[in-house]
Every structure is written in C-alpha cells, then in structure tokens.
User: Which sequence fits this backbone?
C-alpha cells in the first residue's frame, strides 16, 4: 500500500517502492510462509512476495523468493542487510566481491545464511523437479526510508570488503565467542542446519532452555536460535519491535499481550509460521510437541552492533556487568515475567494443550501444585 505517493509530505519511501515493484503483500500477526501468494518479481527474475508482520515496527521486513525447478535469481546487490532461511528445497548461492573473488555454498531446508553488505549474489535451485523457497529478513525499510533513493540502494559500487569474512564462514565453519549464558555468539556467514547446531544453556530464560546468538557477515542484523525441551515452556518477556519469530522444529504456540490487557492473542506455530512481538508486547513461547521446539528470531540490531538503545538495554543492559532486560525480572526493572508472577491462566492453558497432544508436562519444579 503506497503512502502519499506523488505528494511531498508524509511519505513512506519503502512502501512506495514495494508498490512500484508490484509485489504481493502478506500482512497479519501470524503468517504461514508456505501459504503466501507469490508472483513474478522482475528484479529477481523469480516469483516473490513481501511479508509485513503487524507490529513489526519501522526497521525490518521479510521477502519470499520462490525459485522454480532448475531456475535462478537474477544477480543482485544492495545497500541493505538480510538474513536468509531456507524453508524448502535445495540449491546454492554464489557471492562475488569487488575484487573478483567468489564464494559459493549449498543450502537445504533449515539452512540460514547472510549476504555480506552490497556483495553481488545469485541463488540457484539445485532441483529440476521441486521449487526452492527462501525467506529473508531485511532492514530495507530502515535503509529506503533513510535514503529514499532506489539507485543508491540497488546500484551502488561501494565495496564493503571487510564484511566478506573468512573462507570457512561459507562452508559451515565459524568462531565461538564465549560471553555469558544467553550471549554466547557464533560468528559465521552460513549455518547448514539450524535444527542440528549445538546450543548453549540459558537458565535465566527458564525450564532448561538453550540458545545461541549469531554474528552474520559482520552485520547489524540480529539472529538467534532457541530451543525448548519437550514438556516445557519459556518465561514471558518483552522488548522493542522488529523481531520476526519463526518455528524451525517441533510445534507449539505463543501468547501475546500488552501490560494491563486481560486477554491473550494466541498464535499457533509449526515450521514456516512467523509472527512478531510488537513493541513492549509481552510474549511467551510454549512447546506442545513430542520433540524439542526450536525457533529462529531475526531482526535489526544484534550483539555486536545493537543499533538502538532499546536493543542494547534488552541484550546487554545499560550498565557495566548488568544483565540484559530480556532476562531480568520486571520486579528488578527488567522485562521478564517470572513463572511465579505470570497469570495463573497461562499454565492452565498449557496443561490443557499438553493433555490434548498427549505430552507429559515437565514443569513440576516450578509448578509443584499444578494438576
């Protein structure tokens, strides 16, 4: 939907650009990416769509690339960052830098990768029978509304050669940067399978949960993967806008609510479903499957480059040695809802869901009196 296109006030350059590109737009609180309509996107030479989550904020969006059997995208480069996730299919990506150096890697379902800023790249579907479906979280809304110049964004020759990274970063290798639980970082450009990567314990977030944070292509985009063991759920928390949460393994649901609201918004998820916690909206994730549930969260502002004070406060805290607000109780000035402080209805809803799915609850440590 264009905003004041052709006028000289209240302009949203990003939405006007999407309108000009002729992309279909999927917009909702929870979206099944496998069900999104795509149509030919001349810029990339394949079908595509824009995905706009309600409550996503001003900085981030998603694009789908629907690559036909044996097909490929047109070569592209751009002054915005993106984090790709492979929903289905197999293929490869070639990245070319200004000095002629090239890097190639092959991807399949549940792979994640990032393109170094403004590097020329192209995606190839490796199957002659099945499509390949990629989704990418980008900061194009921030960039386009900052510069409002399409040529600058898509036809810029500036070389960010320092973003290329090690050659091993394109083969699944990486560097572990140990910080503290919840903030351990895996630096790379490519993760072959988010369902298989080893995670680290993050006790503050509750019930045996694990995670790992990513630094991808030395960029400002954020990505982390978290897992909830069978029979458990995480503590509720809130943070700023822009994060896109997407199921990778298992299935379950999330409850979302703003402080003071009596009702919850429930979003059921499985692989390919994405939803946004809005700005300062409490949200809580529940595993109701017979397998560990993993989800990928992407957005703007990460551990290395938080970008905004809101992200810095959430991840690191604003004082030396302080824990991030996302894992600090609201009773201590943070943004986490401890189990003992949550609405009693929340645990009852989850127990009913577990009963329906035939899964044994494992939250007795925190709820010893719950039936």
Assistant:
């Amino acid at each position: 939907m264009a905003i004041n296109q052709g006028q000289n006030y209240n302009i949203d350059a990003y939405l006007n650009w999407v309108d000009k590109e002729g992309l279909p737009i999927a917009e909702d609180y929870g979206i099944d990416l496998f069900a999104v309509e795509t149509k030919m996107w001349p810029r990339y030479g394949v079908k595509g769509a824009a995905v706009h989550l309600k409550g996503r904020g001003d900085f981030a969006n998603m694009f789908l690339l629907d690559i036909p059997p044996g097909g490929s995208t047109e070569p592209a480069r751009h002054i915005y960052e993106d984090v790709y996730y492979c929903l289905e299919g197999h293929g490869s990506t070639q990245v070319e830098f200004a000095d002629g150096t090239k890097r190639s890697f092959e991807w399949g379902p549940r792979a994640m990768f990032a393109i170094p800023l403004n590097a020329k790249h192209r995606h190839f579907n490796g199957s002659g029978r099945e499509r390949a479906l990629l989704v990418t979280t980008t900061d194009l809304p921030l960039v386009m509304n900052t510069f409002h110049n399409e040529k600058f964004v898509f036809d810029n020759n500036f070389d960010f050669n320092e973003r290329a990274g090690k050659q091993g970063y394109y083969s699944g290798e990486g560097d572990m940067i140990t910080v503290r639980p919840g903030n351990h970082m895996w630096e790379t450009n490519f993760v072959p399978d988010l369902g298989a990567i080893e995670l680290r314990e993050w006790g503050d977030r509750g019930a045996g949960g694990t995670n790992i944070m990513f630094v991808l292509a030395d960029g400002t985009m954020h990505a982390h993967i978290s897992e909830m063991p069978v029979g458990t759920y995480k503590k509720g928390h809130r943070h700023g806008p822009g994060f896109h949460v997407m199921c990778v393994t298992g299935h379950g649901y999330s409850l979302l609510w703003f402080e003071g609201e009596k009702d919850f918004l429930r979003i059921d998820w499985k692989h390919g479903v994405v939803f946004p916690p809005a700005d300062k909206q409490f949200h809580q994730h529940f595993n109701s499957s017979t397998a560990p549930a993993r989800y990928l969260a992407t957005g703007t502002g990460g551990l290395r480059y938080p970008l905004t004070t809101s992200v810095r406060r959430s991840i690191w805290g604003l004082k030396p040695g302080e824990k991030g607000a996302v894992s600090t109780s609201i009773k201590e000035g943070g943004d986490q809802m401890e189990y003992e402080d949550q609405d009693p209805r929340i645990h009852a809803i989850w127990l009913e869901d577990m009963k329906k799915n035939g899964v044994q609850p494992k939250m007795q440590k925190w709820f010893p009196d719950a039936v």
